[in-house]
C-alpha cells in the first residue's frame, strides 16, 4: 500500500474508504514491551531501526476526504492533522466490506471476507432476503479464535497491546479481544452516556464515552509504555459548526458554514 510522509492536503481522492482515524470507532495501541534501552557506542544493536509505537483508530462512515490532512476544506481536524504530520499517511487503500464487521475482521486478521466468512453485520435474516432472487451466503458474526490477529503478531514481536471501544467481532468470553491477542481491552459502543462496558467498569455519572475510552487507553500499559505499543480505541469526534459571516455591505451571500472536528489531545 503506497504511503506518504507528513505532507498535508496532497490528495483529495474521491474514493471513500473506512478511514484509519476516528468516529463510531475502535482504537488500538501497541508499545514495545521492553521499554527503551540505552545502547553503548559500538553496540551492533544500536544500528537497528527503532520499532514504532502504533496508535490505530478506525472510524465508521468517515469519508476519505473528511479530514483536513486528506483534503477536506470543510472539516477542520487539527489534532488528527498533527498526528498525521508526525507519523505516516496512507494514500491508497481498500475496505473489505461496506460496513463495520467485515472491515474490522479484515483489519484484525489481514484476510479477505471469503476467508473470515464475514461479509456484513449480523445474520442473513437481519433483512428479508426471501424477497430477493438469490439467497445470500451465510454470514459469520464472530471472528474465529484460530485466526491470527495483528495484536497476536505484535505480541510475539514484543509489543504491549490494548483495545478500547467498538469491537463488533464477538463480545462473549471466547471471542472477546482479551482472547484475541490484546493485553487489555474495554469494549463499548453505541451509547455516549450511561453506557455499558465489557468487562464491566464503574465510572462516575455523566461520564462521556469518548472521554472514558481515551483516558483508559492513555492510562493502559500499552498507552504508558515508552516504546513498542499497539492500541486501538474508539474516539467520537465533536463536530461544531461555526457561525457564518455576516452579509457584506454589497449584499453578497455570507461564506458557507464550516465544521470543526475536535478530538481530545492528551500529551504525557
Average pLDDT confidence is: 75
SS-based structural class? Answer: alpha/beta
Termini distance?
Answer: 32 Å
What count of structural domains? 1
Total E-strand runs: 10
Indicate the low-confidence ranges by residue numbers.
1-24, 35-40, 235-268
Biggest sheet features: 5 strands, mixed
Number of helices: 6
Tell me the series of helices and strands, N- to C-terminal: EEEEHEHHHEEHHEEE
Question: Could you tell me the radius of gyration in angstroms?
Answer: 21 Å
Give me the side-by-side strand order of the main sheet.
3-2-8-6-7
Name the shape in a single word. globular
What fraction, in percent, of the residue positions are helical? Answer: 10-25%
What is this structure's SSE topology?
Elements: E1 3-4, E2 26-31, E3 56-58, E4 75-76, H1 78-86, E5 89-90, H2 100-109, H3 113-116, H4 150-156, E6 160-165, E7 184-187, H5 209-219, H6 221-224, E8 228-233, E9 238-241, E10 259-262
Parallel strand pairs: 4-10, 6-7, 6-8
Antiparallel strand pairs: 1-5, 2-3, 2-8, 9-10
Can you walk me through this structure?
By secondary structure, this protein is an alpha/beta fold. The protein has one domain (3-262). 17% of the residues lie in helices and 15% in strands. The protein contains 6 helices and 10 strands. The chain has helices at residues 78-86, 100-109, 113-116, 150-156, 209-219, 221-224; strands at residues 3-4, 26-31, 56-58, 75-76, 89-90, 160-165, 184-187, 228-233, 238-241, 259-262. A 5-stranded mixed beta sheet has the order 3-2-8-6-7, with helices on both faces. The chain has a 3-stranded mixed beta sheet with strand order 4-10-9, with no helix packed on it. A two-stranded antiparallel ribbon has the order 1-5. The radius of gyration is 21 Å and the shape is globular.
Amino acid at each position: 500500500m503506497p504511503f506518504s510522509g507528513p505532507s498535508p492536503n496532497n490528495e483529495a481522492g474521491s474514493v471513500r474508504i473506512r478511514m484509519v482515524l476516528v468516529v463510531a470507532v475502535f482504537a488500538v495501541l501497541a508499545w514495545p514491551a521492553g521499554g527503551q534501552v540505552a545502547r553503548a557506542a559500538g553496540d551492533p544493536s544500536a544500528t537497528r531501526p527503532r520499532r514504532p509505537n502504533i496508535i490505530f483508530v478506525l472510524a465508521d462512515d468517515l469519508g476519505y476526504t473528511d479530514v483536513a490532512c486528506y483534503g477536506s476544506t470543510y472539516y477542520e481536524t487539527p489534532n488528527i492533522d498533527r498526528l498525521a504530520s508526525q507519523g505516516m499517511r496512507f494514500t491508497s487503500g481498500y475496505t473489505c466490506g461496506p460496513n463495520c464487521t467485515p472491515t474490522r475482521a479484515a483489519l484484525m486478521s489481514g484476510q479477505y471476507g471469503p476467508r473470515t466468512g464475514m461479509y456484513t453485520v449480523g445474520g442473513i435474516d437481519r433483512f428479508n432476503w426471501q424477497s430477493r432472487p438469490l439467497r445470500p451466503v451465510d454470514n459469520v458474526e464472530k471472528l474465529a479464535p484460530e485466526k491470527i490477529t495483528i495484536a497476536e503478531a505484535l505480541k510475539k514481536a514484543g509489543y504491549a497491546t490494548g483495545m478500547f471501544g467498538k469491537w463488533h467481532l464477538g463480545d462473549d468470553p471466547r471471542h472477546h479481544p482479551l482472547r484475541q491477542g490484546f493485553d487489555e481491552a474495554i469494549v463499548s459502543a453505541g451509547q455516549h452516556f450511561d453506557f455499558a462496558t465489557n468487562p464491566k467498569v464503574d465510572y462516575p455519572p455523566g461520564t462521556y464515552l469518548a472521554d472514558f475510552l481515551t483516558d483508559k487507553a492513555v492510562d493502559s500499559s500499552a498507552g504508558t509504555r515508552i516504546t513498542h505499543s499497539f492500541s486501538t480505541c474508539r474516539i467520537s469526534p465533536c463536530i461544531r459548526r461555526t457561525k457564518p459571516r455576516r452579509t457584506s455591505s454589497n449584499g453578497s451571500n455570507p461564506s458557507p458554514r464550516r465544521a470543526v472536528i475536535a478530538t481530545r489531545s492528551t500529551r504525557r
